[in-house]
Amino acid sequence: MSYKTLSKEELIKLEEKFEKQYISFKDKNLKLDMSRGKPGPDQLDLCMGMLDVFNSKSILNSEDGFDCRNYGCLEGIREARELMSGILDSSPDEVIIYGNSSLNIMYDTVSRSYTHGIFGMTPWKDLKEVKFICIVPGYDRHFSILRHFGIGYVNVPMLKDGPDMDMIEKLVAEDESIKGMWCVPKYSNPDGTIYSDKTVKRMAALKPRAKDFRIYWDNAYGVHNLYDDYEELTDILRECSKAGNPDMVYKFASTSKISFTGGGLAAMAASKKNIEEIKKQLFFQTIGHDKMNQLRHTRFFKDIEGIRAHMKKHALILRPKFEMVTATFEKELSGTDTASWTKPRGGYFISLNTMEGCAKEVVAYCKDAGVVLTPAGATFPDGIDPEDSNIRIAPSYPGIDELKAASELLCLCIKLVSVRKLIKNCK
Amino acid sequence: MSYKTLSKEELIKLEEKFEKQYISFKDKNLKLDMSRGKPGPDQLDLCMGMLDVFNSKSILNSEDGFDCRNYGCLEGIREARELMSGILDSSPDEVIIYGNSSLNIMYDTVSRSYTHGIFGMTPWKDLKEVKFICIVPGYDRHFSILRHFGIGYVNVPMLKDGPDMDMIEKLVAEDESIKGMWCVPKYSNPDGTIYSDKTVKRMAALKPRAKDFRIYWDNAYGVHNLYDDYEELTDILRECSKAGNPDMVYKFASTSKISFTGGGLAAMAASKKNIEEIKKQLFFQTIGHDKMNQLRHTRFFKDIEGIRAHMKKHALILRPKFEMVTATFEKELSGTDTASWTKPRGGYFISLNTMEGCAKEVVAYCKDAGVVLTPAGATFPDGIDPEDSNIRIAPSYPGIDELKAASELLCLCIKLVSVRKLIKNCK
């Protein structure tokens, strides 16, 4: 029954009921964190075998005979580039391996464009205005890099098969100050959307006015499928090349949610021309990244098939958690007209939309009862969700029982806040 | 016998003799690299036990119970900060652990000052002129960071107990555009000089006109003693604090030449106020560095005493190499007046000065006979040694027999080039 059709009296009755339930939830003294896409300990256990791939008796040479213990190999050892090229859907020659954090690569990539410019074009620091397209809702850490460098933004809404391409085509063609666009193309953060083949092709065929416009393709969840029958993502770099825009995309990925979250491999892929330019700058920054960890990863996973097999084990752990949350939503909220939510088939998040103007209050109510959610608004640049509606749910870390309690609490808070909002509106 | 006192005829005779020797050296088809301060494989073997400190059965929590496999802990786990604080001679609260490369930290530190400024002061990108003091001869990678950011330099000569402090005091007091100074205070690269207590104290008491002036204290060789009776370095941060300049220094160090060169730990130390500012920026850059490697290092070395004991093993390998090179110089060049050289008691380099105008040619002769040295000039900003005299020798990587051959060749090239130069001067 839609709460929106209820009379004031009916709503007040519901409010009383929910308030009682809320108080008894508080008495449970929950202490749960669903705020960040953090693998659970059981997921990290899956990777412990990586610690046995070599020991003090091992030879630590790469396949081409390079001693991984020593200096050198700025772009990463060959087999690590091969491994990551599988995730990045590129050739190893188009790949550079960095340290453990793809966020750090993205930061560096923006920072380099800001201080030195791309292909000899004006460094962004010397331009009056630089803006990015921010697909919303999106990833807070992408947005905060922009804020840090004083880069502006234009929000573009996410649709069912990717961002609103009509808007994007128009924006980049008209506005030379638009220099980039963050994308999480597969199981987008937080919506779990997969960009359709058509969306990717339209993106690759963009005609940006800014010659240094780049698509920042953060394929964070490229192999993070929850189900065996998953949808393939069309490769943007190949499409860009076909469309005559070979240099228009930087791709990023990491093993942070594949191997050890606190000690994985991060990498980027781009056209050879981009990679050459980036390597020239990278020379000033380091002698080389951690090759021991590169070797550890390649000896454990072997190749992309090894990674895919490993990801199936992650899915076995994660799938019940995602399904538990969406089933709870279904059970508690279905038909109430108080919220809608995604049912992602991969990635790390469920995206939930409350009635307009309720998200912040819902998050605050949850917090008061011991469940920490990502702050409402975090999925928008500057933390401002104009509709105060989107909440990002990260179900990976808590155990399944905790998750059940937390989801039930969340549903209750949504109902309580919604009912109160509706009562106010009756006046 | 000083070659400078010989007659033209005597010099021509020597030239003939050296030329014959040079040709027979060429016939040996040497293929050696003394260009970079790279540990030898036997040094890397010393650390293999680090690969046994944990395996798939281990609990990978830090001492305070943090799961090192997961996200978080931006500043590094407590015990890693304790370990590195021993090398950095600071308290753990003044330390941030990064990835594997201290060069990368230094790059980031300059980059941050360039884009965002220090303590709210004008970012360097917005200043007309920014300069660094470069102590020469010095480390090429320090200088190339400046070049990359278009930062100018003023060369200040290295004296016996550190750089020329009279010059430095005057420069920083007068010139507001001087924002920094690179220092390798212990076993300086390439001279092997240790800054005296007096030098450190004068440095700490500088009265720079620029309030965002910082000393970039790259203590790369802080525990890299070749002999048991080593000189202690006075701590700059403590002295700065005493002198009323608590925020004037950033300290850097890594385990690149302690544990695995291609997979060590790098860290920085500074006043708590500096560390707070840096952590705020670091938040935009990463969720956290590789904590697995932090745990690996702390479980292997335990503490600074563990590191000191380990460095004695390195010294056993390195000392004979350094002594072989300087003994060869002594034997072949002593009294010829063609070169002078340092006899470092630690670090990774021997610094050699040829007669003015000979270094480039000597390096070219060596290369033609199969021995690669650091390019002449590399120890000066922009690769320009005004006297074309300094050559940096890195004796760590080759085996002792190869090193003997290479040193003999180098001496021969010095003698041949010097004699030819002197003959030319006779005309």
UniProtKB/TrEMBL annotation, chains A, B:
- Gene3D superfamilies registered for this protein in UniProt: Aspartate Aminotransferase, domain 1, Type I PLP-dependent aspartate aminotransferase-like (Major domain)
User: Pfam families per the record?
Assistant: Asp_aminotransf
Single GO MF descriptor: L-aspartate:2-oxoglutarate aminotransferase activity
> What InterPro entries does UniProt report for this protein, alphabetically?
AspAT_Ic, PyrdxlP-dep_Trfase, PyrdxlP-dep_Trfase_major, PyrdxlP-dep_Trfase_small
Q: PANTHER family, alphabetically?
A: AMINOTRANSFERASE, PUTATIVE-RELATED (PTHR43799), ASPARTATE AMINOTRANSFERASE (PTHR43799:SF1)
Q: What is this protein called?
A: Aminotransferase class I/classII domain-containing protein
Species of provenance:
Johnsonella ignava ATCC 51276
